[in-house]
Amino acid sequence: MKYLSSNHGRVGTAVLAAFAVAFVCAPLHAADTAKPVSPVIKINEAAATTPIDTTPLRGPLSMLSGSGGNITVLVGKEGKLLVDAGIAVSRPRLEPAITALGKGPIKYLINTHYHWDHTDGNPWVHEDGATILATAGTVRRVSTSTRVDDWDYTFKPMAKAGIPTDVVKANRTIRFDGQTVEIRLIDPSHTDTDLYVFFKEANVASLGDLFWNGVYPFIDNENGGGIDGMIKANDAILAQLNDDVVLVPGHGPVGTKKQLQDFRDMLAGIRDNVAALKKQGKSRDEVIAAKPTAKYDAVYGHFVIDPDFFTRIVYDGLK
Fold first, then answer.
1. Is 2-270 a domain of CATH 3.60.15.10?
2. Residue 202 contacts by C-beta under 8 Å, 6 or more apart in sequence?
3. DSSP letter at 31?
4. CA–CA gap between residue 216 and residue 303 (Å, rounded)
5. How many other C-beta atoms are found inside a 10 Å radius of the C-beta of residue 175?
6. How far is CA 31 from the centre of its chain?
């Protein structure tokens, strides 16, 4: 599929580097005395200057990268539909990239979950006229202060203009410019606010942070996420999609169903390894030292979440 050539090495380079440095520098223990700068601040600083890369998908769909999470854009005669809005400081580069894809206003924005690197652009997108759709969980979390200790950051309530007004309470299908857009809710997994979007005619799915292509994911244990939920979510998604589907991950290059299957199997393999060690009574530090991710590190261990950090996320998320 030449039109889906991977640009993993160049997409949002500055933002990805900031993610990597920020998370590696994040405190692993509450007792750590050093207080590094929050990864949120570092990532925002990088996003302020990172160029936006455009990857054509199928038909009227494209993926934009470089503003935090990947953004999907559907362009047609009626205007545009977006999946996720990126980080607000990217607007001077993101808005022209969206405009370059075609004429017409942004009519709809669908948030896959509440994390700021997918929703921080909500206010300006709404001010441009878009209706914002999201789960009730996303509305709840962006409407109030939300703490993420792993990022050492407390998110303030979002400006009223950015709070989604169309709450998706059940799976929904909408028609936009001749395209069937299916919004599918997911049980708590990456967070307790997740959904994904399937474009039926194009056979393209925008998965948000339910899928990080070729890299270890962040899982928001503090806000409803967990490793078991991530595995179940990927099982459900795999059962719903065919082999020719094109996948837009939350982070990383455009993917395939095979890559999603590999991602799911990695999650399950590490979960089983960590669970076995935890059952033996080993502490978190002892489990990290045992390198339960070693089998997968060559593929997944060179990005935002390093192997030790992902081990900690899995350990803390096991019930």
1. yes
2. 57, 58, 59, 60, 61, 179, 246
3. T
4. 7
5. 9
6. 29
Write down the domain spans for the chain.
2-270
Element (H, E) at 205: strand 204-212
- Counts of helices then strands in the chain (DSSP H, E): 11, 14
pLDDT exceeds cutoff 50 at 2: no
Using the structure block, give the residue that is written with the tokens 């999946």.
Answer: 83
Positive or negative, the CA dihedral 83, 141, 68, 6 is negative
Q: Which three-class secondary structure state does DSSP give residue 27?
A: coil
Average pLDDT over residues 301-308: 90
Q: What are the b/e assignments for 111-150, b being 16+ CB within 10 Å?
A: bbbbbbbbbbbbbbbbeeebebbbbebbbbbbeeebebeb
* 181-214 pLDDT per residue, tens: 999 999 999 999 999 999 999 999 999 999 999 9
Between residues 35 and 274, the one the model is more confident about: 274
Amino acid at 277: L
The secondary structure element, H or E, covering residue 19 is: helix 13-25
Cβ distance 209 to 203 under 8 Å?
A: no
Q: Which amino acid is at 112?
A: T
Amino acid at 54: T
